[in-house]
Amino acid sequence: MTSTKSEIPAKSHFLPEELLASTAFLLARVGVGIKLRTFAEIEKAGFSGPQYGVLALLGEGATETQASIADVLGLDRSQLVSELDALEERGLIERRRDPNDRRRHTVALTAAGKRQLVRLRAIVKRIEDSFLEPLDEAARTQLHDTLLRIACSHDRRYKRES
User: Fold this and answer.
1) SS3 call for 95
2) What is the pLDDT of residues 66-105, one digit of tens each?
3) How far apart are the C-alpha atoms of 24 and 72, rounded to whole Å?
4) Residue 75 lies in a domain
5) Residue 100, exposed/middle/buried by CB under 10 A (0-12, 13-18, 19+)?
6) Hey, which residues does 107 pair with through a beta bridge?
7) 72 and 57 in contact (C-beta within 8 Å)?
8) CATH number reported for the structural domain that contains residue 72 in this entry
9) Quick one: which of 133, 111, 107 has its CA closest to 34?
10) Number of folded domains in the chain?
11) Sheet holding 101-109, edge to edge
12) pTM, two decimal places
């Protein structure tokens, strides 16, 4: 026998009020959801999360050393080398010996890397817009500013030079 009523989950299928009242819980759940979806879409495009991070960092116009990229992105330096190898094989970055210190390599984005970064940014923007759809532009700006303020108070990498 089929029901004609719309299916409403039993109360036990809803999250407990205690969790819904927790800003930290909601922030973590939404954050994990965005991260998982973003990484899945970036991986579908043939990239890893760390590779996108490298391209985004270099896309700000900086030529960075491998060590500074690892530090900024919070990656193990040996893990970064394999990510850079993959990007370099695809012609998206180039590494050069630092003329001031031959032990170091500098890393820069190529023209192909800049084009790929535009495509990856579009993926991330689409996902962000999807998650933030219930918010108008003012609420999105307020949310961003609030999250940035919180992040800055816990990790110096989020601070911006004035």
Assistant:
1) strand
2) 889 999 999 999 999 999 999 999 999 999 988 888 888 8
3) 25
4) yes
5) exposed
6) 64, 95
7) yes
8) 1.10.10.10
9) 133
10) 1
11) 64-65, 101-109, 93-98
12) 0.83
